[in-house]
Every structure is written in structure tokens, then in C-alpha cells.
Design brief:
- By secondary structure, chain A is α/β, with parallel strands linked by helices.
- In chain A, the strands form 4 sheets. In chain A, strands 6-7-8-3-9-10 form a 6-stranded mixed beta sheet, sandwiched between helices. Chain A has a 4-stranded antiparallel beta sheet with strand order 2-1-4-5, covered by helices on one side. Chain A has a 3-stranded mixed beta sheet with strand order 11-12-13.
- By secondary structure, chain B is mainly α.
- Chain B is built from 9 helices and no strands.
- Chain B is elongated, with a radius of gyration of 21 Å.
- The chains are: A alpha/beta, B mainly alpha.
- At the A-B interface, helix 2 and helix 4 of A face helix 6, helix 7 and helix 9 of B.
- Bound molecules: adenosine-5'-triphosphate (ATP) and magnesium ion.
- Adenosine-5'-triphosphate binds next to helix 1 of chain A.
- Chain B: It is a multi-pass membrane protein.
Chain lengths: ~400, ~220
């Protein structure tokens, strides 16, 4: 267990980066520090391995005040994944991964075996990668190496500073999954910094939300979603997740509106377009209906592929000649529940959302509703129930 | 030797006739340069590392090395001769002093330009300051240090031709005796090998520098 008691950090230039933090980091858990850029996440993390000295308070690991420990020895017992990977470019992958064991004077064979084992652990073939240099690996592979370097000497505590930040969403999720899987076996005490709430929700046992050098809320993800401490936490979590957690604390204005769900750039055309052009556009956008708007984006009508094909032979006609008036629209800001009731009652396949002066702002389609729901389900927790009742 | 023949033929013949002597002088020349450079590395690299400790110290050390560098070489050698007497050692000291600045400066710059992340990573995995220096900082600064050595070597090969003035050996001997005897052929026979040595040193060290660069940033293609 790592315990912060009244920890402060003022940098040499007088900047108070950490203002009086009390925190308990539980053993065998992943604790995620999250917050906006500059809120002091990295600073908090570096205080743990004494890369930064606090200017007040104390930090204890397993009951021992780290100020009394030799910083070099301490760091060898704490795995550290640095914010920008920080692999040594002049060392091979094997050298990089084995760096702490070698500092700890393990014998050569043992280091080699450990390196191969770790490479295997993250799905990199030792024979292929052992002797490569970091620059010969992809970004995702480099980050994997960064992670296993921290694991090499089997430390109980591992600090990870935005270890997956430089990755594309797919590799990122893959590595998050890997981490969760590894953690199930290893049960390390992991302090993980991110500013991505999805990442935090996915991997955290405890989330510590920070702002301006202070802890705003520290709790289980589930509880943070259900009982956000204040508006900052709410806004950081984001509307959608709050709803999906079905919290009672959601303000009425947070109920989903059509604006959250609509397609903002649906296929539209000017009235002067020819019919062939209209068909082409539908083909390209893969839709069967176009909304016809004038230059001021005022909604004029709607044209379906059947209207167009009916009169396709007449070369001089434009979409203005074949369009139908739009019978149902909803104003921007309408609650989604009302829009869905309307669509269901009138058997509409889509519903235009308009602003002032009948200005077209977006389109609710069945697809967009499904996507919205998928987002809610995908972001985890017990989402959906609240929604299902709305939709039915 | 036929005075009617073109100059380059006469120079060639002179060099062919005196090849043993010339080779001996080249050896002397290189010996002085090697010793001077080796001393400069042994002293300059630690001074460069020391510069990293504080800006103030860096200003003092680099300033001093710079003063030495701007002294006219003849003046410096004359002063050294007054202090140390004639001979090989005096010349080595002169070359050492002349090579210091490029080596100190490049060591300093090479260490200073290092990615702060890497230094932090080194500290973070638990390297002591010495381990950090030996395992991370110096290897990564090596291409810079090599570049300094290259500059120093070219300068030293040039300055070493002044050796005969303070009782040293080397290719300067042929050049000065040519000057004294107003013998063009002799002057060329000393100057050409000296120039070739400088060019070769530049090329070889340049090649080495490229290799180190590759090593330290591992095929950064
Ligand atoms: N050496 C330093 N001297 C002065 N101020 C510093 C120093 N290092 C960091 N800071 C300041 O302390 C604050 C916290 O920095 P920190 O690196 O902990 O932020 P962070 O939460 O990790 O941000 P990010 O998400 O951008 O990595 C920042 O405002 C930063 O400018
Ligand atoms: Mg940070």
C-alpha cells in the first residue's frame, strides 16, 4: 500500500504543482490518476519513485517512509513506464528490457531467460525482436517494450505514465486488454496515469480524479459514475456515460436530446440539382433519401430514390420538381424520447431536426439511434436500462 | 635530379629518394598528434562532463579553453618553450592545449542535447549518476565527441608542422629546411604529406563518426 499524507510539491519557480494530497493506493490494484493536462498527474507519480522530492508531507510504501530510503535502490524496486516510452535508442530490445535486472546484478542466463519470457508475454517473438533496436519497432511494439521493461525485475509497484497515449485506438485497446489480462495474473500495485476517461473506466479498480494539483474525487469507477462529486467530475466523465450509469443525480437538462443523436452531416442537395446528380449523390453517400435545402440551409423538401427514378427520363427536371414537402420536423433541443415517439407513431424512417427559421441542423435516422445506443453499451457499466425504457 | 623537369616530377623523385626519411618523419608527426589528442580526450571529456554541472562552471571552462584556442599557435608554442624547454613533450603539450576546446565543447553539447526523457528514464529505472553517464549519456553523446575529435585532429596535424621551431620532429622539418634553402621541391615534399595526413584523418574520423551515429541511434532510417 502506498499512502500519501499531506503531500505538497512546490517547484523551484514557486509553482505549487501539488497542493496537500492525501491518498491511499491499495495493494494489488490498478489506481488510475486522471485529470486535465498540467493538473499534476506526472508529478504525483514521480513523487512515488523520488524522481521528485516533495516539499511537504510524507509518502509511505508498506509503512516505510520513502524519504528514508536510498532513491536509487527504491527506483530499482519500482517499475516505471515513462510518459514518452523512453527506450534507450543505443541498446537492443533485450538490453532495454533487461536493464533493471542487470543493475540488480542478476546473472546473465537469468536475465536472458527473463527477457525472453517477457517478450513472449506481450506476444513478441524473442528470436525476432531480441536483437533489434527500438527504432526498428512500431510504436505499439515500443510501448509494449516500455511496459515489460518495467515488469522485468518483478517489482511489486509499477508506475505507468500515459503508457498507451501515442497509439491508434485499436492497438491502444489491445494493450489495455493485455494489461488487464496480465494484471489478473500478476496482481501488482499499479499507478496508471491517463487523461482518457474510457481508458480509466476500462482498467481502473480505483479512479483518482485530479484538478489543479488537488484530488477532486477518488473512488471506484462505478461510484464515480453514479455519484460524481461535483460539476467538474460530471463534465469530465461526460454526459453520455453519466446517463448510461443511470445515476439519479443527472440534471434534467442532461436527458438526451435529438442533438446528441442526430447525424450532423446528412446528404443534402440544392433544389437546382438535376436528377442524375441526385442519384449519384445518393449512391456516393449510400442513402435512399436526400434533404433539399436552399443556400441558407432552410429545409425545402425531401426526395427519395423512388421519386427520382420515377421521373428519371425527363432530363430537364431538377430535384425541386420531384421533391415532397417535409411533413414532420422537430426543433433542435427536443428530447430524444419525444422524437422517437413521433418516429414510431408516424412510421418515419428518419426525422429532420431544424433550428430557427426552419433551418436544417441534422437528421435522426434509425442508424444514428442504434449508434448512440451502441456507444452507451460499449462504454461499459450497467448502461442501457435507462435507455431501453425510453426507446420502447 | 634534373632542374629542367616539371616541378611535380622533381617533387615525386625527391619523395621517392627520401622515402625512408619521410616515413620516419610522418611517424614522428603522427606520434605527436596522437599523444596530444589522447591527452586532450582524457582531460577534455571529464571537463565537458563537469560543464554539465552548472552553467557558471561551463562558462569558465569553455572560456578558458577558448582563450587557449585563439592564441596564435606560434605564440603559444613559444610560451610553452620558455616554460618547458625544447623537445617532443613541449610540442605534445601544445597540441593537447589546442585540441581541448573542440573536445570539451562537443562533449558538453553532446550531453546537453540529449533527450531529457532518456536521462529521466535512466534515473527512473534506478541508475546511479555514474551508471547513467556510462550507460546512457556518454554512448549517446559519442557522435558529438567524435566530431570534436575530428576537428581537433585536423587542427593538430596542421599545428604539428611547427614542431621543428621548438625542437620537435615531424614533417615540418622538411618544410623548414626547404624554406631555409629556398628549395621548392623540399617544401612540397613536406607540405603534401602533411596535407594528405590531414585529409585522411578527416575522412577516417568522419567515417567513424557516422558509424557511431548509427550505433547510438540504431539504424534510424
Ligand atoms: N520542473 C518544473 N518546474 C516548474 N513547474 C513544473 C515543472 N514540472 C512540471 N511543472 C508544472 O507542474 C504542473 C503539473 O505538471 P505535471 O507534469 O505533473 O502535469 P500532468 O498532469 O502530468 O500533465 P500532462 O497530462 O500534460 O502530462 C504543470 O503546470 C507544469 O507546468
Ligand atoms: Mg504528465
Amino acid at each position: 500500500m502506498i499512502v500519501f499524507t499531506g503531500v505538497k510539491k512546490q517547484y523551484d519557480d514557486g509553482f505549487q504543482a501539488i497542493k496537500n494530497i492525501d491518498l491511499e493506493i491499495k495493494e494489488g490494484e490498478i489506481t488510475v490518476l486522471i485529470g486535465p493536462s498540467g493538473c499534476g498527474k506526472t508529478t504525483t507519480m514521480k513523487l512515488i519513485n523520488r524522481l521528485i522530492q516533495p516539499t511537504g508531507g510524507s509518502i509511505r510504501i508498506q509503512g516505510r517512509d520513502i524519504a528514508s530510503l536510498n532513491p536509487v535502490e527504491l527506483r530499482r524496486q519500482i517499475g516505471y513506464v515513462i510518459q514518452n516510452i523512453g527506450l534507450f535508442p543505443h541498446m537492443t530490445i533485450a538490453k532495454n528490457v533487461g536493464v533493471v535486472p542487470r543493475l540488480l546484478k542478476w546473472d546473465k542466463d537469468k536475465v536472458e531467460r527473463r527477457v525472453d519470457e517477457l517478450l513472449g508475454l506481450v506476444g513478441l517473438d524473442p528470436d525476432t525482436y531480441r536483437n533489434r533496436y527500438p527504432s526498428e519497432l512500431s510504436g505499439g511494439q515500443q510501448q509494449r517494450i516500455g511496459v515489460i521493461r518495467a515488469l522485468a525485475a518483478d517489482p511489486d509497484v509499477i508506475l505507468m505514465d500515459e503508457p498507451f497515449s501515442a497509439l491508434d485506438p485499436i492497438s491502444r485497446e489491445q494493450l489495455q486488454d493485455e494489461l488487464v489480462r496480465l494484471q489478473q495474473e500478476l496482481r501488482k500495485t499499479i499507478v496508471f496515469v491517463t487523461h482518457d476517461m474510457d481508458e480509466a473506466l476500462k482498467i481502473a479498480d480505483t479512479i483518482v480524479l485530479m484538478k489543479d494539483g488537488e484530488i477532486v474525487q477518488a473512488d471506484r469507477p462505478e461510484r464515480i459514475l453514479r455519484y460524481p462529486a461535483n460539476d467538474f467530475v460530471k463534465s469530465f466523465i461526460g454526459k453520455k456515460r453519466l446517463q448510461s450509469a443511470g445515476t439519479e443525480l443527472v440534471a434534467p437538462e442532461l436527458a438526451p436530446s435529438v442533438d446528441d443523436v442526430m447525424v450532423e452531416q446528412p446528404a443534402t442537395a440544392f433544389p437546382s440539382r438535376g436528377l442524375a446528380e441526385a442519384v449519384k449523390l445518393m449512391e456516393r453517400r449510400r442513402v435512399d433519401t436526400l434533404l433539399i435545402v436552399d443556400k441558407n440551409r432552410k429545409l425545402q423538401g425531401t426526395v427519395s430514390i423512388y421519386n427520382v427514378l420515377d421521373q428519371y427520363a425527363e432530363e430537364n427536371k431538377t430535384v425541386a420538381d420531384v421533391m415532397r414537402p417535409v411533413e414532420h420536423t422537430v426543433p433542435s433541443g427536443t428530447s430524444l424520447a419525444i422524437a422517437l415517439q413521433l418516429m414510431s407513431a408516424k412510421q418515419l424512417s428518419n426525422l429532420a431536426v431544424v433550428g430557427e427559421d426552419n433551418r436544417f441542423v441534422g437528421l435522426i435516422t434509425r442508424g444514428s439511434v442504434v449508434r448512440h445506443m451502441a456507444d452507451l453499451y460499449a462504454s461499459g457499466s450497467n448502461g442501457g436500462d435507462a435507455y431501453a425504457s425510453v426507446i420502447v | 635530379m634534373n632542374a629542367d623537369q616539371p616541378l611535380f616530377v622533381r617533387v615525386y623523385e625527391y619523395m621517392a629518394d627520401h622515402s625512408d626519411e619521410l616515413i620516419g618523419l610522418i611517424g614522428d608527426h603522427l606520434a605527436m598528434v596522437f599523444c596530444g589528442l589522447a591527452l586532450a580526450l582524457v582531460v577534455g571529456i571529464p571537463l565537458g562532463i563537469l560543464c554539465l554541472r552548472s552553467e557558471k562552471l561551463a562558462a569558465v571552462i569553455l572560456g578558458a579553453a577558448n582563450v587557449i584556442q585563439v592564441l596564435p599557435s606560434l605564440a603559444l608554442l613559444a610560451l610553452l618553450m620558455l616554460a618547458l624547454g625544447l623537445g617532443f613533450n613541449t610540442m605534445v603539450v601544445g597540441l593537447f592545449l589546442y585540441s581541448l576546446l573542440p573536445i570539451i565543447r562537443n562533449t558538453y553539447v553532446g550531453l546537453k542535447q540529449l533527450d531529457r526523457n532518456l536521462v529521466e528514464a535512466g534515473r527512473g529505472v534506478g541508475m546511479s549518476p555514474i551508471q547513467l553517464l556510462v550507460k546512457v549519456q556518454l554512448p549517446l553523446a559519442l557522435p558529438f565527441i567524435m566530431a570534436g575529435l575530428r576537428v581537433a585532429a585536423v587542427i593538430a596535424i596542421g599545428v604539428a608542422t611547427l614542431a621543428p621551431l621548438i625542437g620537435g620532429e615531424g614533417l615540418g622539418r622538411v618544410i623548414y629546411s626547404g624554406l631555409n634553402m629556398r628549395n621548392d621541391v623540399k617544401i612540397y615534399a613536406g607540405a603534401i604529406p602533411a596535407a594528405v595526413l590531414a585529409i585522411l584523418a578527416d575522412a577516417i574520423l568522419g567515417w567513424l563518426q557516422g558509424r557511431f551515429k548509427k550505433g547510438s541511434h540504431a539504424a534510424e532510417a
